[in-house]
Amino acid sequence: MTDSFVYAAARTPFGRFGGALADVRPDDLAATALTGVLAKAPGLDPAAVDEVVWGNANGAGEDNRNVGRMAVLLAGLPVSVPATTVNRLCGSSLDAAMMASRSIETGDAEVVVVGGVESMTRAPWVLPKPSRAFPAGDATAVSTTLGWRLVNDRMPREWTVSLGECNEQVAESHGISRERQDEFAARSHHLTDAAWTDGFYDDLVVPVEGVDLARDESIRPGSTVESLARLRPAFRADGTITPGNASPLNDGASAVLLGSGAAGDAIGLAPLARIAGRGSAAVEPQLFGLAPLDAAEQALARAGIGWADVAAVELNEAFAVQSVACVDAWLERGLGDPELVNARGGAIAIGHPLGASGARILGTLAHRLRESGGRWGVAAICIGVGQALAVVLEAA
């Protein structure tokens, strides 16, 4: 067995739903991120890429038919470079990185590009095909943008409630107030804006050709607890979750270049971090927001460290309430400081294009470790239908 390393990361700016990236196809966004990460290793022969593993959650429209392979072809890589597409919903591109790292560690590959893409704007409506020709009744087109669709009647009703209702239940069971959620959301906007202003993302974000979008489009730097408090609850009349304290709908793509230690010469870069531990967990579907707790524990155990060793955490902010619940639990388990979590902003401000978010947090974590000089970091993401993934990085 050998080790697998993160060598480089790149992503597009994340556009808001119906915003600046609305006219860009998801396969073109994927090709942009793929080209962007390879441009960071100009000495690497693209033909030396053993595999591309790509994440995508919807796959019902222009991202169908293996969008990872489409990205390879659109990016102009040699046709000899194979690619596959992974769907673990919000965790798709982190799953891609975990799969690729295992290939490297077992010697099946030396250089793998992983990433993910989602255009939630361009996700189509789908029309179920009837089992018999010419049915007499009406047919309903179903949006594929987010959440359950074409639900099997055999699924228990409590499992198939909306993602927002799932997290209202978390707020209720954990006693997390609307004010705490709004405080967390305002922090996300402030830290993301500060990170852009400081130039943290200058080396991570690549432009999309023909689009005038210099940074993530959903950032609201003027957000305050008071301004967020004016927003109405979205899922319960007396609820706590609003459009302001949940991640928005977004478009974007991200990519990470992985390789073995021996591949460093061919890549032409020093590694940023070693993939030291991986974890995957599953819980009841309505509790998906809490699943990162078990996934992170697995990853830490496999890396041989504890929360007290961790210098940086990237937790995908699907909802403020589940993020707060996870951070509270990690503090109880030994995490030294809540400010170690998403210190350069999070998905409430940056955005959450489903298939792209896992690779985004992994690349961000590697850069945060390099910036801070910390040794250990955790990237964790919750996944709809009751799952989560986590990866531990050790700075190289």
Overview of the molecule:
31% of the residues lie in helices and 19% in strands. The chain has 11 helices and 12 strands. β11 (376-383) and β12 (387-395) form a beta hairpin. It has helices spanning 26-39, 67-74, 92-105, 163-174, 178-198, 225-229, 264-267, 292-303, 320-332, 347-350, 357-372, and strands at 4-11, 15-16, 51-55, 83-86, 111-119, 125-126, 142-143, 250-260, 273-282, 310-315, 376-383, 387-395. It has a domain at 4-121 and 248-395: Peroxisomal Thiolase, Chain A, domain 1 (3-Layer(aba) Sandwich), CATH 3.40.47.10. Strands 1, 2, 3, 4, 5, 8, 9, 10, 11 and 12 form a 10-stranded mixed β-sheet that branches. It starts with a strand and ends with a strand. The model has no long low-confidence stretch (mean pLDDT 97). Keywords: Acyltransferase, Transferase. Its EC number is 2.3.1.9. It comes from uncultured Nocardioides sp.
